[in-house]
Each structure stands twice: as structure tokens, then as C-alpha cells.
């Protein structure tokens, strides 16, 4: 079991306790423990009970439970709770508006046990009869149930897919018969969510590879297993399709299964225009293959340069490739700093110094600590006094810290009317200001546009944090006039953030394309709440690459002295 597996069990227990109406502190203890485990650099499976007990946020009682989870893969308490609150029931929590309290009401008052039950109740308008629910919520639930029917919502986040793919591919590479192996599909294109994994391999003895594949202990169901093709469902509820091809076709198969479909169809038309046939076996003139072993060879034969998978969406990348005008996409190593991170001063889980040292060890030249402002009371947001106190600590740390420049910033709340949650003189003293919308997300597009435009016009603001506020699969983006935001941002020299949190990835890929076209700079930030989170930058990079972003489009590729063109 890796740390994520252990954390998942604890999270599930927390979810079920929560829905059961258990003590909030107990629920929080399980959630915090799950988070602490995710933050560990070493596998908890390698730790003794005493060592687990010593992890901050984990008490003796939980340490015992964690050992049980590590040893048995599960915990009796989780199984007991699951009998009362089956996964079908907990699934309902993903529906926007259905938090644990409301779900508890539905269970107690309407005996709802599944999605079908909920649909029935919604369709017969029984929710609106219950105090605390009402017709507005009922309508919202009805809409999101329909939305899910249309096939949305079952995709998994890239970061989760990456973890699952890493374990599976490590296992697959142990098979002696395997030659090349690549995870293709939307995963290779680094889409923010993936529907399933498509693995392409080349092998001399493909039957042996297939046998090895379906024997993977993460498999829960084998849907299909043939000589060259197999399809399984993993316990993580992700489907995996495996294709085996001979080495001379590997590039063609990789290209075909990387997609996107639109990109493939466009390439095939180009091939046809040259009297060629392109398919998953190769590029053919008549019956003779002229390319197929590598993607590069195929693109070259079509008079194209190799197109990075992130761009393969038929959004102009084929034309750009033909004209020799493909962008040189941003890479992680181009980033010199991280400009959105949290510390123990608010809702972070590491000290300022720990964050700074980790950022330095990750190769960054500067890091801004941008804790929340006072409006976020839940996160113990900073008022001017605590901000000054933090400044003094940062100054002390700077004296003993070498190899990285530590900046004091803030993630200041944008209030309903577009004013900021801290006075101008407080903001003026800071090295970096992120301004974000965190509440009252239901405003009309006109109101929200006015609100954000006003923040952009504020000369203290360097960047707008997670601009759309969407949470993948959980919360729709806020409504605003993006064209207007881009115009004002360019005028004012204010940047927009690409937030790297796996459920934010905000700006989106297409929003990045629009920002670049409008001449608005972006900042790629981790929004780290722990030292481990500093690694999330990788996901922001993925999103930016899908958005055609190059080094010069990104402010935090600059040396510190050129960082704030506005000042
Ligand atoms: P996903 O799994 O929904 O996140 O998205 P993809 O892009 O991974 O789609 P998937 O798994 O259905 O198929 C993998 C790739 O196979 C896809 O990107 C392109 C290729 N492919 C699938 N169906 C077709 C097709 O009908 N025509 C062509 N040209 N390519 C296809
Ligand atoms: Ca796929
Ligand atoms: Ca597939
Ligand atoms: Zn935020």
C-alpha cells in the first residue's frame, strides 16, 4: 500500500462518519490524518507504530488504525460503516449542493439509499417538502443528475490517473517479454481528466504480456482478453485498454491511440492528399509501409515536425507544424519561482521556513508565501497586525536562509464589490499580491466581471488567483466576461494564474490560449499547502502546455528583478 491508498481509507471513514452525523472533531481527525499521510515523504508502510504516532496530526489511536490498514489493506471500521453507508450512497455527495448534512436528511427523512432513490424523490418533488432543502436545491440536483446522465462526471483527475498509471506501468515493465511501453490517449495529451487509460506496447511474445497484464493485482474485472488486445477494469474503477503491436508499427499505434480523434482524422486527410494511407499499423503507399516505427518518422513523412502530445487537439497545431511555427512549450525547468503558497500562518501545513527550504531543494530561486487575508476566517486569514508579525518572521528567516529568496505575499480576498480585503498600505508593503474570489460565487456575470475588473485595476494586484474558481467535478466556474477581463488585464499589466492544484487547473487550456492571444501574462503556481504540494507545479505546466504557453508568456520564468513590470 502506498500513502495515497492508506489516506483514501481514512478519507472514506471520515466521509462516512460525516454523513453519519458523527462528532465534527472526530471527522476532522480522520481527514487531517489522511492529509498528514499524503504529506509524508516516506511510505508509512515502512514506519513502526511509534513512528506513525510521532507524525504531527496523528494520535496513538489513529496510529494503531493506520498500522492495521497498512497490514491488511483495510480497516474493520470502514467495512462496518460501508454496510450502513454503501458507496452508491456516498457517491451522491459529489452532487453539488449535497453536503453531509443534507445527505443525512435525505437518508433519515426519505430513506434514500442510492442515485435511483434520489432521482425518484426529485422527480416526484419530495425534496422540496423537507425544511432545509427546498425547491431551488431540488432543481439544482435535478439538473446535475441529468448532467451526469450525459456522461460527464465519471472521468478521473489527471493526478489520480498518473498515480494509477505509474503503479501499473512499473508492474508491466517487470514482464520480460515487453519491448516499448507508453500510456497513450488523453493521459498522454495531459488532459485535466481522463476517461480511461490506453496503453500501447510492442512485444515479441504478446500473449505473455497479455497474461501478465490481466494478472495485475489492481484488476477487478477482465472485460476482454485476446492475443493483441485486452481491456480491464481496475479496483480504482478506471478502465485500461492495452494494445500490443509489432515494433515496426509501434509509432503508428502510439500516434493513433494518443489521439485526439480530431487530430488523427486531420492527419489522415493530409496523408490521403499525398496519396498515402495512415492507420494504426503505419503509413502506407499502396501496400508498402513507408513509416511506422516511430511517431517522428511518420510526421516527417507527412512533411510535419513532431507535434507534442499536449497540442494534438486539432486546434491549429497541424498547420503550425507544417509552417514550422510550433510553439516551444514551457517546461518545468523554466520556472524560477513559485508565487502562490501557504504556511502555518493560515491553512498551510508547513512552516514558512520548511516551505522555503523545500522550494530551494526543488531548484527554485524564489518563493512567495501568500497566506489568506482575514475574510477567510476559517483559514485564520491575516489582518494587518498578523501580516506585520509574519513580515518580522520572514525577515528573520531570510537572514539564515541561503540559496533562495523568500518573498512575503498575500492571497487577498476580492470582496463582493471588487474592493480588497486589506487596506492599500498593507498591500503596498508586500512583495507579491495574489487576489482571489473565494465566496459569493453566485453573482451574475455582470456583477462578477465588475468585481474582478476592479481588482485588476488595483495597482497593488499582481495576479488574479484561480480565476474561474471551478473545482473539477464539484463546482462549476463562476460566470464573467472573460474577454473583458483579458482586455483590462492587458491594459493594467496584471497577470492571470494557472493554479496547479489537480482539482483546479485554472486557467484551463483554452483560457491559456485566449490569454496568450490577448497578450496577457500568466503565472504558474502550486498553491501549495504543504512541502509535498510544491511538486504540483508539474500539473500546472501540463495545463499551460496544452494552452500553447511558452517560456516568455510566464512571469515566474523571469529572474526576480524583472518580476513586477507594474512597479
Ligand atoms: P478519454 O479516454 O475519454 O479521456 O479520451 P481519449 O482521447 O483517450 O479517447 P479513447 O480512450 O476513447 O481513445 C483513445 C484514442 O484512440 C483517441 O484519443 C484516438 C483514438 N481513437 C479512438 N477512436 C477513434 C476513431 O474512431 N478514429 C480515430 N481516428 N481514432 C480513434
Ligand atoms: Ca483514453
Ligand atoms: Ca480507451
Ligand atoms: Zn485561493
Briefly, what is this?
The chain is α/β, with parallel strands linked by helices and 567 residues long.
Write up what this structure looks like:
- The chain has 567 residues and is α/β, with parallel strands linked by helices.
- It folds into four domains: 3-153, DNA polymerase, domain 1, CATH 1.10.150.110; 156-245, Beta Polymerase, domain 2, CATH 3.30.460; 250-322, Beta Polymerase, domain 3; 332-562, Metal-dependent hydrolases (TIM Barrel), CATH 3.20.20.140.
- It contains 23 helices and 17 strands.
- The strands form four sheets. Strands 11-12-13-14-15-16-17 form a seven-stranded parallel beta sheet. It has a five-stranded mixed beta sheet with strand order 2-4-7-6-5, sandwiched between helices.
- Helix 1 runs antiparallel to helix 2, helix 1 packs across helix 5 and helix 22 (509-518) packs across helix 23.
- The radius of gyration is 26 Å and the shape is globular.
- The two termini are 50 Å apart.
- The model has no long low-confidence stretch (mean pLDDT 93).
For the sheet with most strands, the description reads: 7 strands, parallel
Extract low-pLDDT stretches.
Answer: none
Total of domains: 4
CATH superfamily of the largest domain: Metal-dependent hydrolases
With helices defined by DSSP (H or I, 4 residues minimum), what is the helix count? 23
- Give me the count of strands: 17
N-end to C-end Cα span: 50 Å
Amino acid at each position: 500500500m502506498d500513502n495515497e491508498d492508506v489516506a483514501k481509507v481514512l478519507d472514506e471513514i471520515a466521509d462516512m462518519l460525516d454523513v453519519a452525523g458523527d462528532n465534527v472533531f472526530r471527522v476532522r481527525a480522520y481527514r487531517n490524518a489522511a492529509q498528514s499521510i499524503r504529506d509524508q515523504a516516506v511510505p508509512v508502510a515502512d514506519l513502526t507504530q511509534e513512528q506513525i504516532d510521532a507524525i504531527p496530526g496523528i494520535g496513538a489511536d489513529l496510529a494503531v488504525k493506520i498500522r492495521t490498514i497498512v497490514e491488511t489493506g483495510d480497516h474493520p471500521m470502514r467495512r462496518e460503516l460501508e454496510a450502513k453507508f454503501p458507496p452508491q450512497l456516498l457517491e451522491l455527495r459529489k452532487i453539488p449542493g449535497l453536503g453531509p448534512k443534507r445527505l443525512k436528511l435525505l437518508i433519515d427523512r426519505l430513506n434514500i439509499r442510492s442515485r435511483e432513490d434520489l432521482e425518484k424523490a426529485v422527480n416526484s418533488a419530495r425534496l422540496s417538502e423537507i425544511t432545509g432543502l427546498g425547491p431551488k436545491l431540488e432543481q439544482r440536483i435535478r439538473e446535475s443528475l441529468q448532467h451526469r446522465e450525459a456522461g460527464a462526471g465519471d472521468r478521473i483527475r489527471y493526478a489520480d490517473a498518473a498515480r494509477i498509471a505509474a503503479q501499473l506501468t512499473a508492474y508491466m515493465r517487470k514482464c520480460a517479454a515487453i519491448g516499448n511501453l507508453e500510456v497513450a490517449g488523453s493521459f498522454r495529451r495531459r488532459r485535466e481528466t481522463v476517461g480511461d487509460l490506453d496503453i500501447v506496447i510492442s512485444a515479441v511474445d504478446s500473449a505473455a504480456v497479455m497474461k501478465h497484464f490481466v494478472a495485475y493485482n489492481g484488476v477487478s474485472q477482465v472485460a476482454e482478453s485476446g492475443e493483441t488486445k485486452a481491456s480491464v477494469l481496475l479496483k480504482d474503477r478506471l478502465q485500461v485498454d492495452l494494445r500490443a503491436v509489432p515494433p515496426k508499427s509501434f509509432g503508428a499505434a502510439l500516434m493513433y491511440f494518443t489521439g485526439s480523434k480530431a487530430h488523427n482524422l486531420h492527419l489522415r486527410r493530409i496523408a490521403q492528399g499525398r496519396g498515402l494511407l495512415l492507420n494504426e499499423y503505419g503509413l502506407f503507399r499502396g501496400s508498402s509501409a513507408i513509416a511506422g516505427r516511430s511517431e517522428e518518422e511518420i510526421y516527417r513523412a507527412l512533411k510535419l515536425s513532431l507535434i507534442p502530445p499536449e497540442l494534438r487537439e486539432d486546434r491549429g497545431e497541424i498547420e503550425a507544424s507544417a509552417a514550422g511555427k510550433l510553439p516551444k512549450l514551457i517546461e518545468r525547468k523554466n520556472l524560477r519561482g513559485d508565487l502562490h503558497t501557504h504556511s502555518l500562518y493560515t491553512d498551510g501545513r508547513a512552516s514558512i521556513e520548511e516551505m522555503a527550504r523545500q522550494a530551494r531543494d526543488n531548484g527554485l530561486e524564489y518563493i512567495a508565501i501568500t497566506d489568506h487575508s482575514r475574510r477567510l476566517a476559517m483559514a485564520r486569514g491575516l489582518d494587518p497586525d498578523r501580516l506585520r508579525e509574519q513580515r518580522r518572521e520572514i525577515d528573520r528567516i531570510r537572514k539564515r536562509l541561503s540559496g533562495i529568496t523568500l518573498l512575503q505575499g498575500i492571497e487577498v480576498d476580492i470582496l463582493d464589490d471588487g474592493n480588497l480585503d486589506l487596506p492599500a498600505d498593507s498591500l503596498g508593503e508586500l512583495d507579491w499580491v495574489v487576489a482571489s474570489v473565494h465566496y459569493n460565487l453566485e453573482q451574475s456575470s455582470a456583477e462578477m466581471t465588475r468585481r474582478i475588473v476592479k481588482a485588476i485595476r488595483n495597482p497593488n494586484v499582481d495576479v488574479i488567483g484561480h480565476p474561474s474558481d471551478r473545482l473539477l467535478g464539484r463546482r462549476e466556474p463562476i460566470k464573467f466576461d472573460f474577454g473583458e477581463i483579458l482586455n483590462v488585464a492587458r491594459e493594467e499589466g496584471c497577470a492571470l494564474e494557472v493554479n496547479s492544484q489537480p482539482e483546479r487547473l485554472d486557467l484551463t487550456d483554452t483560457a491559456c490560449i485566449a490569454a496568450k492571444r490577448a497578450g496577457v501574462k500568466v503565472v504558474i503556481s502550486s498553491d501549495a499547502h504543504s512541502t509535498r504540494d510544491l511538486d504540483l507545479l508539474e500539473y500546472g505546466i501540463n495545463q499551460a502546455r496544452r494552452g500553447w504557453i511558452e517560456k516568455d508568456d510566464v512571469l515566474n520564468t523571469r529572474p526576480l528583478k524583472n518580476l513586477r513590470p507594474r512597479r
